[in-house]
Amino acid sequence: MDRRTPLGVAVIGTGRMGTDHVRRIDRVVSGARVTAVVDLDAERAEAAAAGIDGCTAHTDAAAAMAAADVDAVLIASSGPAHEAALLTAFEHDLPVLCEKPLTPDAASALRVMEAELALGHRRVQVGFMRRYDSEYVKLKALLADGRLGRPLMLHNRHRNVAGPPFFTSAMLITDSVAHEVDATRWLLGHEISAVTVLRPRPSAAAPEGVSDPQFVVLETDGGALSDVEIFVNCGFGYQVQAEVVCERGTARIGDGHSLVTHTAGRWGGTITQDWTDRFAQAYDDEIQTWVDATRRGEVTGPSTWDGYAAAAVCEAGVRALREGGRVEVHMVEKPPLYR
Ligand SMILES: NC(=O)C1=CN([C@@H]2O[C@H](COP(=O)(O)OP(=O)(O)OC[C@H]3O[C@@H](n4cnc5c(N)ncnc54)[C@H](O)[C@@H]3O)[C@@H](O)[C@H]2O)C=CC1
Ligand SMILES: O=C1[C@@H](O)[C@H](O)[C@@H](O)[C@H](O)[C@H]1O
């Protein structure tokens, strides 16, 4: 595309994430503008379009994607709606940034991958934004330079203040641990081969019938272990921490010590309360990188394969949660397009 023309983006889904991405494209990143917004809830779509010059509001994603001023699509609808939006975007051969999860299960992720393979070129970047977080980027670089030796274990903690009311035990894995699944694969460069889920007694803050917290153990094909404490009703803050244990040392991120105060006989800092705060820089860099690559005619970042792999691992995790024991992950062979 002409480098002087901003990329026209249709944002599908204007709930919490979609509205934040609309703001980001409109006010933070360069080289793009929001030309259409879509939500099943017409009032939400209209509210998101209000005040943005030339932005139209729709309730039907297909109508928005057919518009002449739409060059690319950002999907931020709920997970089960992603597949239909992705397939429509492929019909128009439009580049897509799709929020995680790519789709909620491995079979639908595979259908999306097959449709992209039929196009013959990559079109999708999946919204695994931790790959753009400055702390995760530093950890990845440290592991890549080999100074600490081979990684043996990765300890992850993922805590939310309170899960949404519709969250089930399985969603702790498919919606939340999905991030650690991708971070583990990306940091270590391994595929995940088996999943075990252990459950302590539920917190009194967990809704009736929801297993929260959970302790998920991921085994990798490179012989490493990655464990994840997921606790979505911890009540006190939003914390995402990771510590890698290597042959010659350890490295840790996510302690949130950017400002520590000492006063009145106490010391301390603040804890972020949600992802829009903790990962603000990561979302900004993720969307800017997507816009820049799309304007160059390239697709970079987490691919449809990565979205499929995460879905397959999470599906094994949900089986392990329900049936107990260790469940192996089965995936199709990686197609050459994603190697
Ligand atoms: N990367 C990250 O850290 C985060 C990612 N997410 C992901 O972002 C996506 C959206 O999550 P939230 O904004 O929290 O949800 P939300 O429930 O606030 O918003 C979803 C919106 O999509 C709309 N929608 C549903 N089906 C639709 C369809 N077929 N066409 C058009 N609109 C449709 C709903 O009406 C709603 O307004 C999910 O995939 C979620 O997993 C959410 C939170 C953080
Ligand atoms: O993706 C996200 C949410 O969908 C999920 O529900 C939260 O647990 C995560 O922390 C957040 O990053």
UniProtKB/TrEMBL annotation:
All residue ranges annotated as the Gfo/Idh/MocA-like oxidoreductase N-terminal domain in the record: 8-128
Domain called Gfo/Idh/MocA-like oxidoreductase C-terminal: residue spans: 140-329
GO aspect biological process, one term: inositol catabolic process
Pfam families named among the record's database cross-references: GFO_IDH_MocA (PF01408), GFO_IDH_MocA_C (PF02894)
Alphabetized UniProt keyword annotations: NAD, Oxidoreductase
Enzyme Commission number(s) from the entry: 1.1.1.18
Single GO molecular function: nucleotide binding
Keyword Membrane: no
EC class (word): oxidoreductase
Tree of life domain: Bacteria
Catalytic activity field: myo-inositol + NAD(+) = scyllo-inosose + NADH + H(+)
Record Gene3D superfamilies: Dihydrodipicolinate Reductase, domain 2 (3.30.360.10), NAD(P)-binding Rossmann-like Domain (3.40.50.720)
InterPro entries from the UniProt entry: Gfo-Idh-MocA_inositol_DH (IPR050424), Gfo/Idh/MocA-like_OxRdtase_C (IPR004104), Gfo/Idh/MocA-like_OxRdtase_N (IPR000683), MI/DCI_dehydrogenase (IPR023794), NAD(P)-bd_dom_sf (IPR036291)
Lipid biosynthesis in keyword set: no
Oligomer status and interactors: Homotetramer.
Function: Involved in the oxidation of myo-inositol (MI) to 2-keto-myo-inositol (2KMI or 2-inosose).
HAMAP family hit by this protein: IolG (MF_01671)
Protein name (record): Inositol 2-dehydrogenase
Gene designation per UniProt: iolG
